[in-house]
Amino acid sequence: MRLRNKPGAEQTIADHPQYILTDASDWKGCWEERFAKKQPIHIEVGSGKGQFVVGMAKANPDINYIGIELQTNAIISILEKQIEEKLPNLQLLLVNGADLSDYFAEGEVDQIYLNFSDPWPKKRHIKRRLTYKTFLATYETIARPGAELHFKTDNRGLFEYSLASLSQYGMVLKQVWLDLHESSYEGNVLTEYEEKFSKKGQPIYRLEAEFTGKK
User: Fold this and answer.
1) 193 carries a ligand binding annotation
2) Domain residue limits, the chain
3) Residues 129-141: pLDDT tens digits?
4) 194 labelled binding-site residue
5) What is the pLDDT of residues 147-177, one digit of tens each?
6) Among this protein's residues, is 118 annotated catalytic?
7) What is the Cα–Cα distance from 155 to 158, expressed in whole angstroms?
8) Binding residue per annotation — 15?
9) What mean pLDDT, rounded, does the chain reach?
10) CA 17, 52, 121, 207 torsion: positive or negative?
11) Identified catalytic residue from 15, 99, 118, 179
């Protein structure tokens, strides 16, 4: 989805370094210092306009969240929410999610969320899928032992691919939902895409998987 340019977005980002970073390499291994309290760190790769990560930060004050987004026109919406909310457990990172090991030290992250990632349906683009093995290896590098990956999508093809990719990588699938909104799962925080697609009656797929250290 193409997002409209927001006038003054870059200046707003520059004016709020306490909430958002465009280069976090200096914070590698020191993310705890960006937050008011030392707490588990959860990251969302591809946060879009931030409905999920802001909602999670509100619902779980005992967890520190980092929303990671590449598009300025998307992350500015999260920043505007954060300027209003001033959540002490939320930080934003305007960078390419493919380079996470440049910004996080080994074992620094406690949980990773992938929500409604680009499905890249063509076979020649398989390496761009965020559940491809090279991405999984990056996540595992920055994740603590036993950390989990939580993944949601409306795209059945991507979900089927991801189930196979995670299993082949050696991850343990802990839970799988083939129709999340018709299940008994509690505490679900919707993303913008999830809200849109579920209203159309499309099933939402979800999984939770654990890194075991076995590749």
Assistant:
1) yes
2) 11-211
3) 999 999 999 999 9
4) yes
5) 999 999 999 999 999 999 999 999 999 999 9
6) yes
7) 5
8) no
9) 94
10) positive
11) 118
